[in-house]
Amino acid sequence: MNGKASSLPVPQYPQIAKAAHASGNVTVDVTIDEEGNVIAAKAVSGHPLLQAASVAAARNAKFAPTKLSGQAVKVQGVLIYTFASEPVVQRQTND
Fold first, then answer.
1. β-sheet with 88-94: strand ranges across
2. Nearest C-alpha neighbor of 43 from the set 5, 22, 53
3. Partner residues linked to 77 by β-bridges
C-alpha cells in the first residue's frame, strides 16, 4: 500500500477454523478512500473458513491518506493475513 497503516487489526482465528485445522494465507483486496478508510474488502484467496475473519479485520484497518500531486486519492491494494497458531498480517502490497 502507498499509505502507511495507522491501525491494522489482527483477525480473530475462528473456532471452527481451529477445529478444522485450517491455516495458511488469506489475500484480501481493499479499496481505501481519500481519508484512509477501507471502503471495500474482498477475500480473493485462502481457506474459506478464514476469509470472513480476514475481511472483517481488513475493513477495520485505517491508513494515512495517499496523496498524488498534493491531493488525497482513493487507492487499491492487497492485505495478506497468515493464520498459524496466531494470525498476523504478513505483508502489504500495492496493486
1. 38-45, 24-32, 75-83, 88-94
2. 53
3. 30, 94
